[in-house]
Fold this sequence. Notes:
By secondary structure, this protein is mainly α. It has helices spanning 10-19, 27-39, 47-55, 62-76, 93-111, 120-136, 148-172, and strands at 117-119, 184-186. The chain is built from seven helices and two strands.
Amino acid sequence: MTKTNLKKQYLAIKAALKELGITDQSPSELHGLMAGFLTYQPQHKTYQAWEDTLLNETLGLKLLEQLFEVTRDQINDTEFSMQMLIPDDDAPVQERALSIVEWTEGYVSGLGQNEIQVTEQQKMTLDEGLENLIEITKLDFLSIENNEMEDGLLTEIEEFVRATAMLFVEELAVPVDEQVDADNRTLH
Length: 188
């Protein structure tokens, strides 16, 4: 699954969640949660820690473990190859919009699972990104029409969310103890 197009895995993950009786989380929200959790110090995170901390269930499903590994690999990739687990571009625009909102909600929540120490400069950058992500979670996906213009705007929103997530990865990649600024803040 490492180089697999995550959009092609959306339906498989959705079926796996249903099989496990997890109906209160979409694949997009689950993946966003996972990506947010892995954004800060991904090299120190394991699937078991994520499962224990966030799901509070024994899932043991190989597909979710593979998704976790792929997500960690993509976040660690210096070429910024991270993808969002959302329906393929052939899916209806409203379904894709909802999935982007859910992924973003999950990502913000996943970030909140970390005690992230940041410098004042990082805080300014990351706070703006966080505010933008929160605004995207308010997207009225029901009012989106299934046409080329809306599809194009949705593609831009998807790329903005992905780029913002990668900005967080880049900003948080350098451990705070290696930075000169002594005035650290916690990002919430």
